[in-house]
Amino acid sequence: MSGAVGLADPSGTSGESRGPGPAPRRAPTLEEVAELAGVSRATVSRVVNGSSRVSPEALASVTAAIAQLGYVPNRAARSLVTRRTDTLVLIVHERPDTVFSDPFFASVLRGVNRALSPTDLQLVLLQAQGEAQRDRALRYVGNGHVDGVLLISLHGDDIMPNAIAAAGVPLVMAGRLLTGRMVDYVDADNVGGARDAVGHLLATGRRRIATVAGPPDMSVGVDRLRGYTEAVRAAGGDAAAGWVVVGDFTEASGQAATERLLAEHPDLDAVFAASDLMALGALRALRAAGRRVPDDVAVVGFDDAALAAYADPPLTTVRQQVELMGQEMVQLLLARIADPDGEPRELILPTELVIRASA
Amino acid sequence: MSGAVGLADPSGTSGESRGPGPAPRRAPTLEEVAELAGVSRATVSRVVNGSSRVSPEALASVTAAIAQLGYVPNRAARSLVTRRTDTLVLIVHERPDTVFSDPFFASVLRGVNRALSPTDLQLVLLQAQGEAQRDRALRYVGNGHVDGVLLISLHGDDIMPNAIAAAGVPLVMAGRLLTGRMVDYVDADNVGGARDAVGHLLATGRRRIATVAGPPDMSVGVDRLRGYTEAVRAAGGDAAAGWVVVGDFTEASGQAATERLLAEHPDLDAVFAASDLMALGALRALRAAGRRVPDDVAVVGFDDAALAAYADPPLTTVRQQVELMGQEMVQLLLARIADPDGEPRELILPTELVIRASA
DNA sequence: ATGAAAGCGCTAACAA
DNA sequence: TTGTTAGCGCTTTCAT
């Protein structure tokens, strides 16, 4: 029996004092499993952690004891000694003025969870808004509370990626970093997608194609604009200043940008918008100006969140695999955790042009 | 000096071996802070935990040492002894066939994070889909890994709420539970909101008002239907079977339901849809049938995720305060954790009718 | 007000 | 293959 006496009923909380309802028992420990199985703690630990150096009999009795007791390892205790936390953190770092639509984020999250569900890892969510929260997140990450970081950064001049990487914590980003050190990331094929979009417009006879571009300090903005430019130039077209107006991914900015494009080029016959919300804005602006879509002007957007499907007419969009992006971010992160010093990796997911009534 | 010798450079990992880049130092411990401050671990612990029984001098030197070392308490170690985890978990339990739109969830999440950010609590996210994942979540929660649970359950016959409550883990739900024990929850005023919607339709001269209701095993479905029924009956109208068709919150179901309503009552002049996606579906069905909105038929939806704002014409909707819902869920949960045996609490958030072109 | 000491539940050498 | 042992970093009596 050894000194296990005190374990039988710690501090006298045996349920009676709680009144009705099931008594919230203390969770069983390794020690209790070991006793029931008639082996030592170490052996139980080996079983739990899947060590091969365990006899079949020991394995059987331990497994039975675990099942009987409903034993689940205490993460805190384990983490204390292994210095692993079995925890990943997803940080969404936004400016106080949020620009991105939530559905995008929700889809990434869904993918992350899908990838995580067969593992024993848990996901901590940190929505960092503004400097104070950013620093808190950084402190949290920097102090060994997580095994790795998934980062969705919503602005280009973010110090987080470098700070996290510098702290030696494995990191994977959604989207390419424009400056600073090379960091693992997953991204959509924004250049190719934009090229396809413009290619489609060209193929359907459009020649005066304008674009509502994204912010130039974010890779999404830069890449989608590049795809547009390349495609237009390849067709001998003009991708000069007047055909490009920058927005900030919001519907309002898409609308305003399109108004300017119309003022500059009343004869435009197509608009490629670098986000779905901006495409929606473009649609509004065109209608307000009395233009008909798609007969008069065609609109193609980049599908950040499937929102564009609800436009009327539904917008032709470059479909990204947002959920897959979340999944792959996790895979990359796990690989990075397993091999901290490997080469930086990137993964570019293909996009697909979904043609609808609008173009 | 005691036995602190071994701490100076544990296992010789002093950075040189890592090659270039900043050496991933071990995070400073209480012990180190204590030594630097010239006090004992216990005193540092008191300072960190805001105990009053500390002399001003001690407090000052400890505070300085903490700042100098950038000390952050190790959660695992703390949790091991306190049996608190300072962790809440948000469980989204969906059927394999997801019904709810993501934006709703994203908004709740945003509110949860907002409420959490001034605290030291962290949020773990569990997306439980199907039985296997549900049981895993239950095991996780039941074994003391979290201090409390926020639960968004997407179907009516869910065993999770009762299982969690039975395990004695503090729980707050989004939405009212139709059966089983009384559980703390936050909900929108679905009855009142639906009543307002129908009231508006009546006020604008509509008399033949149909509804696309939600699933009858969920409080959202039941309550919105009840609000509709009450309002229609109060006006002396007919809320009988033919005017009510049940959908499952998806756009497709809204469309199908509306088609049936039109078949049954070609003379209907308004549709109240119990979700924004179903309202969108209703819009499509009406158009397909050659009806004009809102001249011919008015449409009002329940706004679960602001998606309806993108319809054309923009839909008149009952606006819920989804983000606030998340915030309040956290407040309720914290209150419950502080007072596990208090009376069950509920919080009904007011809704607001946002009138747009469609009705 | 402060310190000494005992452990929380677990893993990881090391012995056997 | 198994058991023994020594902590991981922290909070918390219990002395002082």
From TrEMBL, chains A, B:
InterPro entries: Cro/C1-type_HTH, HTH_LacI, LacI/GalR-like_sensor, Lambda_DNA-bd_dom_sf, Peripla_BP_I. GO terms for molecular function: DNA-binding transcription factor activity; transcription cis-regulatory region binding. It comes from the Bacteria. Residues 1-26 are annotated as: Disordered. Keywords: DNA-binding, Transcription, Transcription regulation. It comes from Pseudofrankia inefficax (strain DSM 45817 / CECT 9037 / DDB 130130 / EuI1c) (Frankia inefficax). Residues 29-72 form the HTH cro/C1-type domain. This is Transcriptional regulator, LacI family. PROSITE patterns: HTH_CROC1, HTH_LACI_1, HTH_LACI_2. Residues 28-82 form the HTH lacI-type domain. SMART domains: HTH_LACI.
